[in-house]
Specification:
6-stranded mixed beta sheet, about 35% helix, alpha/beta
Length: about 325
């Protein structure tokens, strides 16, 4: 593991401190800020990567990074997709489709040791059957003293092993110094105090690196406005800027859902894309047409993980 954070990085870790979405009153302001943050990141980090889940937030981030990299004339960083073995198949298909379309190099981060110990979500895994590294994560970092745990993503042990450990392993293996992520202030209470540049330098917890949060200032409605106002029309020839479809059939002539860089699950009423076995549809209508102001975006997620978010983030979760 890297033992110290590189001295060549010079960013303002206080940028965005004590701010909130209300201080960014327009989508245009949000996009301009995101582009500015990404430009700094591409200047300062020698080996950055972009977290990409296939969800709206990380897809928006990927779009901004691609646009800024093109304008700056620099290489597009690779994307890191954490494969926790419990994704909707549509998410895998979406990522593969648009990685090819956008010529993005995708690195798949997996905790193969855990994945090999269960065939189906919910199966019981014995801690003693884990390799030495994973046992140490469970016993020492999580201070988990049970003999078994369920093979489920949205639990304390499952989330840490399947996502955080997989990510940390990828950071260490590839030597990434900056991870560009799509977290937002309004998304979850544990993320409300994040800054645009957030240090992760404690070598006892993770390989030292920075997290970069270019869309932290967006709220959920802003993200959808940016998707239909920027990402989709720039990706689909002839798609009207700002046109917001009301269903899968309400698309411009010749355009299908597969042609649009918006995950199919959002069209089906999901507002958050987590695990196939623990994330539920929020409503019948597409995500962007739901009551975004008076309902909770992550209500469809299993609450075990949500309630422990602060502790998980201390260990390196996004």
């Amino acid at each position: 593991m890297q033992t110290e954070f590189p001295e060549y990085v010079d960013v303002d870790y206080s940028a965005g401190e004590n701010e909130g979405p209300d201080e960014y009153p327009s989508v245009e302001h949000c996009i301009e800020t995101a582009a500015d943050i990404v430009a700094v990141a591409l200047e300062e980090y020698r080996n950055p990567a972009v977290m990409w889940t296939g969800g709206k937030d990380s897809t928006l981030v990927l779009y901004v990074v691609r646009e800024v990299a093109r304008e700056m004339g620099v290489d597009m960083p690779p994307a890191v997709f954490i494969d926790h073995f419990q994704h909707f198949q549509e998410i895998h298909d979406f990522v593969e489709r648009w990685a090819d379309e956008w010529d993005v190099d995708v690195i798949y981060a997996r905790n193969e040791d855990v994945g090999a110990l269960a065939d189906e979500p919910g199966e019981t895994i014995r801690v003693d059957d884990l390799n030495e590294r994973n046992r140490r994560e469970v016993r020492e970092k999580l201070e988990y003293d049970e003999e078994t745990f369920p093979f489920l993503l949205d639990t304390y042990v499952g989330n840490h092993l399947l996502k955080t450990v997989a990510l940390n392993d990828a950071i260490e293996e590839h030597g990434f110094d900056g991870i560009v992520s799509g977290v937002r202030w309004d998304e979850q209470e544990a993320r409300a105090d994040e800054t645009f540049f957030s240090p992760r330098h404690d070598v006892e917890r993770y390989p030292p690196h920075d997290r970069v949060h270019p869309i932290v200032q967006f709220d959920e409605a802003d993200v959808w406005d940016a998707m239909w106002g920027y990402v989709v029309p720039d990706s689909v020839e002839g798609f009207p800027v700002g046109y917001t479809p009301e269903s899968k059939t309400d698309l411009p002539d010749g355009v299908t859902v597969d042609d649009v860089p918006v995950s199919p699950k959002y069209w089906e009423g999901f507002r958050s894309l987590g695990s196939e076995v623990s994330t539920e549809r929020a409503a019948e209508e597409p995500a962007w047409l739901q009551d975004l102001d008076h309902t909770t975006e992550r209500a469809g997620r299993a609450q075990d993980k949500e309630d422990l978010m602060e502790r998980l983030r201390d260990l390196g979760y996004m």
